Amino acid sequence: MSAHLAQAQLALPSPPLAERVLGWVAAEWDRWPLWLPVAMGAGILLYFGLTTEPALAWAALPWPLLALALLLRGRAPVSAAGLALAGAVALGFAAALLHARAAPAVPDLPRTATIITGRVEAVDLLPEGRRVVLAAPRLDERPPLERRIRIRLRANDPARPAPGDQLSVRALLRPAMAPAYPGAFDLQRAAYFSGLAGSGFALNAASVVPGDEAPLFSGLRSAIEARVTAALPGGTGAVAAALLTGSQSAIPADELAALRDSGLAHLLSVSGLHVAIVIGIGFALTRVAVAAMPWLALRVDSKGVAAVAGLVLGGAYTLLTGSGVPMVRSFAMAALVTLAVLTGRRALSLRAIALAAGLVLLANPAALTGPSFQMSFAAVLALIAAAEALRGPGQALRMRGWRGCAALVVLGLIATSLVAGAATTPFGLHHFGRLQLYGVAANAVAVPLTSFLVMPAGMLALALMPLGLEGAPLAVMGWGVEATLVTGATVAAWPGAALSAPPLPAWGLGLFTLGLCWLCLWRLPWRWLGVPAMLAGLLSGLASTPPDILVAADGRMLAIATPHGVLAERASGANRLTRESWLRSWGEDGAASLPREGAAAEGLASCSALSCLLRPRPEAAAAILLRQPPREAPRPRRGPAPPLPPVLAETGCGLAAVMISLEPIRGRCRDTPRVDRFSVWRDGAHAIWLGPDGARILSDRALRGDRPWVPPVPAPRAQPQSEPPAETE
């Protein structure tokens, strides 16, 4: 390696900076493998960023690159490292491509009431009623589907299905919801890779036939959830059940919102923290038990035995709670830590998290695009890097006796909250558009409660549950959960506890992530070059221009953002989740309705019964919203278009940079760009930017392209169409 760097030094000018950089490269050479999972992630993002599906032959690309890197690693290490990184990019791309090809196609679901029959795979308790996941479902008399369907049962349904039962119910089904706006989180892609065909709600009581044998962990999960919620009613029991089974569906909305606004929502998502606590409990109890038996302690390595016992307990907990991405990451790292303990190596290291990230990305490439993977790995990466950097001061505090150890615990809790919060806040802004200002204070109380009271009591309750003796430990767990809920509600009520903010653009989040990796993966001073990249990513929202107008994919809602707030036009059945997603994208908490008559937003919106003239800013071009005629007015399906509304009759079509309608626009201003019911029926949600020179329009289909998870362009009906099919109205 040094010979190759010496040749590079001869080929380059040799100012002090160049020599210093080459010296850093040589000193950090053992760290470059840490970038392999980063390169894999880049390959996965490259695959998901395409607008057309690549050929399967691309999946063969990584193997020659990686083989050549292995061949050259001794003779040309610099070239081998470059080939390995290129091979990792290709490997991530190939993994995503192969997972997409292996997934079954998304079926066309009927849009009318259907009898659905299938085997219950999972049951979620809700604040009112239950939700079931059906495997191999049959729709009427059709062959069973290869994908699962999620059905919400009626709140008053007396049926109590359990995993393994056969369930039949009449239901209305719908596919996964399209993105709320171009560039929003892709629920259809998430459903595609998770094996879901769609969801629906029951129209009558379900018919249940008990099954012969329930799936092991699904059955345990349902039984534990029922026992916990019976012993601890209300929100306390729902939160306790979430911590022990991974299901958050029964938590009341107000308590969930309070925990989210106080920065404690991560405690509900069974994650690395919880797996680490469980493994730690298993480790500590086993080591104490071995130490209590001197004859055994003299014959075995108590630390190694305790590490294996903790790993087994953590693995069981991971399977019980659903094996989410943060839990798999934590368990993979725990397995590596156990191996390190058994072999006498340093336990926690960046190599462990790099290997865990690579394994998760190979097993589930689509996880990279979700907040769970991103926030989990960002937090752990930052914490391990900070622990490496602060190892010296920590050792110095330990040398000061019990006062130093106490100070180390307190400072460690504060530092953990600060470091993890700083690393994950941009990801929370990107996905949720919320900023929690007092998360450090809330976590300083809630994390110790969870670590030292809630989870140990919960583990004891699980251990005693087969004997029916879980009541006392569940009561103790309930006290801790109630204290956590009170903490969350108190902090959430503080002024400015949670602020709405426009989400970071994807490129800004990528820049922050690259800077975070640069800061954490290197050791030497050039690591600080990552800080400007992180700051630029955090400020990227200032350089990003959100859309001025959004039109929903179902054609039931549009909204315009003005300096005076958001104004919306909603038809019957407009989707609440779409509205909330729009408000997050604009950093707003609410929206007013466009007036039926008159002006709003200080004249930026001027409406009549038939139309609205809309401007996001005084200097911007105008959009014209054409409204549905009053109910008493006829709606002709054929023949000449109805009269122009007053705003067009008086000024002509040249006034509008774009025409918008939640109904089809027929025969009006054909040379003017338009977004109407037909547009969203074909191409999904639309975003419109209005500037002094006109309008820029972007559709969801133009951004996502033709991918396996994107529904194809609807085929036109054989008969002449003046409107979209009736089911889209």
TrEMBL record:
<feature type="transmembrane region" description="Helical">
    <location>
        <begin position="34"/>
        <end position="50"/>
    </location>
</feature>
<feature type="transmembrane region" description="Helical">
    <location>
        <begin position="506"/>
        <end position="524"/>
    </location>
</feature>
<feature type="region of interest" description="Disordered">
    <location>
        <begin position="705"/>
        <end position="729"/>
    </location>
</feature>
<feature type="transmembrane region" description="Helical">
    <location>
        <begin position="305"/>
        <end position="328"/>
    </location>
</feature>
<feature type="transmembrane region" description="Helical">
    <location>
        <begin position="435"/>
        <end position="462"/>
    </location>
</feature>
<keyword id="KW-0812">Transmembrane</keyword>
<feature type="transmembrane region" description="Helical">
    <location>
        <begin position="474"/>
        <end position="494"/>
    </location>
</feature>
<feature type="domain" description="ComEC/Rec2-related protein">
    <location>
        <begin position="243"/>
        <end position="524"/>
    </location>
</feature>
<dbReference type="InterPro" id="IPR052159">
    <property type="entry name" value="Competence_DNA_uptake"/>
</dbReference>
<dbReference type="Pfam" id="PF13567">
    <property type="entry name" value="DUF4131"/>
</dbReference>
<dbReference type="InterPro" id="IPR025405">
    <property type="entry name" value="DUF4131"/>
</dbReference>
<keyword id="KW-1003">Cell membrane</keyword>
<keyword id="KW-1133">Transmembrane helix</keyword>
<feature type="domain" description="DUF4131">
    <location>
        <begin position="56"/>
        <end position="202"/>
    </location>
</feature>
<feature type="transmembrane region" description="Helical">
    <location>
        <begin position="402"/>
        <end position="423"/>
    </location>
</feature>
<feature type="transmembrane region" description="Helical">
    <location>
        <begin position="264"/>
        <end position="285"/>
    </location>
</feature>
<feature type="transmembrane region" description="Helical">
    <location>
        <begin position="78"/>
        <end position="98"/>
    </location>
</feature>
<feature type="transmembrane region" description="Helical">
    <location>
        <begin position="373"/>
        <end position="390"/>
    </location>
</feature>
<dbReference type="InterPro" id="IPR004477">
    <property type="entry name" value="ComEC_N"/>
</dbReference>
<dbReference type="GO" id="GO:0005886">
    <property type="term" value="C:plasma membrane"/>
</dbReference>
<feature type="transmembrane region" description="Helical">
    <location>
        <begin position="348"/>
        <end position="367"/>
    </location>
</feature>
<protein>
    <submittedName>
        <fullName>Competence protein ComEC</fullName>
    </submittedName>
</protein>
<dbReference type="Pfam" id="PF03772">
    <property type="entry name" value="Competence"/>
</dbReference>
<keyword id="KW-0472">Membrane</keyword>
